[in-house]
Amino acid sequence: MSRDHDLPEVPSRRLLLKGAAAAGALTAASAIPGVAHAAAAAAPAAPRKAAPYVNPLVQQRADPHIHRHIDGHYYFTATAPEYDRIILRRSRTLNGLSTAAESVIWRAHPTGDMGAHIWAPELHRIGGKWYIYFAAAPAEDVWRIRIWVLENSHPDPFKGTWVEKGQIKTAWETFSLDATTFTHRGTRYLCWAQHEPGMDNNTGLFLSEMANPWTLKGPQVRLSTPEYDWECIGFKVNEGPYALKRNGRIFLTYSASATDHHYCVGMLTVDADADLMDPANWSKSPTPVFTSNDTTKQYGPGHNCFTVAEDGRSDVLVYHARQYKEIVGDPLNDPNRHTRVQRLGWKPDGTPDFGIPVADTAAETVKESA
């Protein structure tokens, strides 16, 4: 990913040339007497296949976010089921996140603001600093959920000090959460979910340009509101947006309905040349693009993000899901939303092919991948 945003990108020309040079050197070496035999002996009989992804990747971690940084590491954060802290893991491989050490980099306040419902953190690198966007409520008013920002100027997000930059002020003091940020043609945007006064829904999706990483430039525009039946089961919800730029378009995924097995992923699309701040330029898929699957026994897939595989080119879908359909009590009190990853495909028309949520990895495959 680039320094300025978290949208997956193809490897740089320098890396490609470096790889080509290495391949040329190996070919040249094989032509030197006495070297060819050594090279052949050192080479494996067949190229090793990339290890399959471990699923679930991280147990009991919902709303996952994975940032692939220029230092060669994947950084992982997500919602902990106790809703009381922000965690961080790091690994050079996606599978390595499964067993990577987990650090608590920030805890909820015992009283006052940022004291409850610590939800959906996202880690972004902006202007040489680290930022975490997350949702939180006062300890004394747990449903007064708003968007907050942390900043760390240390090159290593596990070190330094996480400074509370405060609440992101939107147009209304209403229920708001699930902020994500991205840049497009030099402009930084924030996209988030919020309840709009006067609307008969829980949350819609909004977009605004940013003045700095913790301040909206405004105005904010509504990109989507729950309108289809599949967006309104249990709750009328559009939330968890995330952007992916590919093939001359920006694809903005989001999650809809209650957080049980009805939870699913929808998608908005805009042409890369269009004005992102004009809602009329965005089109909405009339059907969900990623849903529960009885065959693979994965339920309520959603709150996704995207990253790229270790090859730097293959797109990877990151999301959470449960392994069962029936939930006793409030789904928010059920801790078993697990982080999962799988390859993201592409259709001939240049749009994402999400497929279905893959089945759990077999135990023997997990052992081989460790």
From TrEMBL:
<dbReference type="InterPro" id="IPR016828">
    <property type="entry name" value="Alpha-L-arabinofuranosidase"/>
</dbReference>
<keyword id="KW-0732">Signal</keyword>
<dbReference type="GO" id="GO:0004553">
    <property type="term" value="F:hydrolase activity, hydrolyzing O-glycosyl compounds"/>
</dbReference>
<keyword id="KW-0378">Hydrolase</keyword>
<feature type="signal peptide">
    <location>
        <begin position="1"/>
        <end position="38"/>
    </location>
</feature>
<comment type="similarity">
    <text>Belongs to the glycosyl hydrolase 43 family.</text>
</comment>
<dbReference type="Pfam" id="PF04616">
    <property type="entry name" value="Glyco_hydro_43"/>
</dbReference>
<dbReference type="InterPro" id="IPR023296">
    <property type="entry name" value="Glyco_hydro_beta-prop_sf"/>
</dbReference>
<dbReference type="GO" id="GO:0005975">
    <property type="term" value="P:carbohydrate metabolic process"/>
</dbReference>
<dbReference type="InterPro" id="IPR006311">
    <property type="entry name" value="TAT_signal"/>
</dbReference>
<keyword id="KW-0326">Glycosidase</keyword>
<dbReference type="InterPro" id="IPR006710">
    <property type="entry name" value="Glyco_hydro_43"/>
</dbReference>
<protein>
    <submittedName>
        <fullName>Alpha-N-arabinofuranosidase</fullName>
    </submittedName>
</protein>
